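Sample 1 of the test manifest.
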Amino acid sequence: MSLRKLGLLALILGFGLAVEATHQARASWSLGPAGCRILTGRFHGPSFDFESPALALDLEGIEGLEVTNAFGHVRVVSTDGVEPVVVLRTVVYRAERDEASGFAERITLHVEPAGSVLRIGTNRDALERREDVGFETHLELRLPEPLALSVRNAHGAVSVDGASEVDVESSFERVEVRRVEGSVKVRAEHSSLAVGEVGGDARLATRHGDVELRSVSGAAEVDVEHGSATLADLGALSLTLRHGSVQLGDVRGDAAVNAEHAGVRAARIGGALDVRTSYDAIVVEEIGAGLQAVTRHGRIEAKGVTGGAYAEASYADVALEGIAGEVEARVSHGGLRISRLHGGLRAFTSGDDVSLRGIEGPVHVEAGRGSVRLAPGAPLAHPIDVSVDGGDVRVELPRGSPLRLEATAARGGVDVSVTGLERVESGERRVVGHVGADGPGVRLRTRQGRIQVLDAESAPDGPATLRGEVAIR
Amino acid sequence: MATPRPEPETLTFGLALVALGAVWLAADLGYLELVPTLRTWWPLLLVVWGSLELWDTLAARAERR
C-alpha cells in the first residue's frame, strides 16, 4: 500500500474519530447562560410517567405513618370519608418508552405494619444498588382521619394537609404543612418551608430556604440560614436567623430574635421582644412588654412600647416614640431621637445629634460629638443631667417649671432666658439659679459649645411637644 | 496515448471534500444538523473508497488481458 493511501486512510479515520468525539461531548456538555458545565447524573434526557393503581391501606390499629422516599414528592391529604390509599407515580429517564415501562414495572410499593405504625416506601434502594437508571417516585396518600406522620424524603417536595402531628426531614424541594392538631417538626436543607394552622408547638430549621409560619397555638422555634422568615400569629417565638430578613407580627407571648446580617421588622408583640442583629435595621411597633434591641451597623426604630426599652446601635440612628417605661439608649457613630417617653432616660451617644421631646422622668444624657436638644413637654418633676463633650445644649422648659439650674460651658457661652429664674451666679460661661423653692435639678455641661435654656413657648419654632413624631419607615 | 485513470484515493479525497462542503452548506442553510449528519454518514467514505479500489483493480486486470 502506498504512502498516499495510508495517509488518506489515516485522514478519514481521524475525521471519523473527531466527529464521534464531538458528538459524545455535545451530549454531556452544556454551554449556555449558566456557563460551560458537564451534564452528569441520571436525571436528564427523555423521561416517561407511569402511575400504579391505588393501593388500599389497612389502618386498623394504626396510629401513625412512617413514609420514606427520595427523588420524588410525598403528598398526604386527610379528608373525611375517603378510603385510605397510597398511589405511586413514577418517572423513568430512559430514551425509549418500552425501556422505561419495563423499568417502571419493577418499581414497587412497600407497605409494612410495625406495631401501631405503618411504614410506607418503595424498593428504590434495591433498584439503585443494581442499576444506573434515573427514576422519580412520587407518593400520594389519602387518609380518612389525621394520623401522626413521619416523613423522610430527599430531593423531593413534601406536602401535608391534615395530621395529628408531623415530623419531616427533606431537602432540595419545598415543604408545606398545614392543619396539624399537635406539634410540627421540620428539618430541611435547600428547601423553603410553609407551615400553618398548627395546634401545638412548631420547630422548624432550614438552610438556604425561606420560612413562612402562620397560626401556631403554641410556641415556635425557628432556625434559618440564608433565607428570610415571615412569621405571624404565634404563641411565642425563638428565632435564630443568619443572612436574610425577618418579618414578624402578632405574637401573643414573648419573642426572641437572634439574627446576623438581617433586617428585623416586628409588630404587635404581646410580651417582651428581644432582638439582636447586625448590618441591618430593627424596626418595631406595638410591643406589649419590654424591648431589647441591639444592632451593629444598623438603625433602630421603635414605636409604642408598653414596658421599658434598651436600644443599642452603631453607625446609624436610634429613633424611639411612645415608650411607657424607662429607656436606656446607647448609640455610637449615630444620632438619637426620642419623643413621648414616660419612664425616664439614660442615653450614651457619640457622633451625631440628640433630640428629646416630650420626655417624662429622670434624664441622664452623655453625648460625645453632637448637639443635645431637650424639650420635656410638661413641668419638670425629675432631675435632668446632660453632659456633652463637643456640641451645643438647648433646653426648652415648659413655663412654670420649678427647677434648680446649673449650666456650665467650658469653652462657649451660656444663654438663659427662663421666666421667673432667680440667678445665684451669672457669668458668660456659667449660670446657676432656681425657679421656685424646691424644684428638680437641671445640670447642663458642655466642654466645647453653647448652652441655651429658654421657655418652650418662646422658642422660635414653638412648643416642642407637638413635634418630633417617629416615622416608622 | 490513452489518458490514465484517476487513482481511487484521489477520487475519494475529491468526493469527500465535495460531500463535506455540501453537508456543511446544508447545515448552515438549516436543512440538517452538521455533527449528527457527519457522525451518521462518515463511514460512507470508506465504502466509496473501497469500491473505487475494487473497481480500479478489476479494470487494470481487464486491461492487461
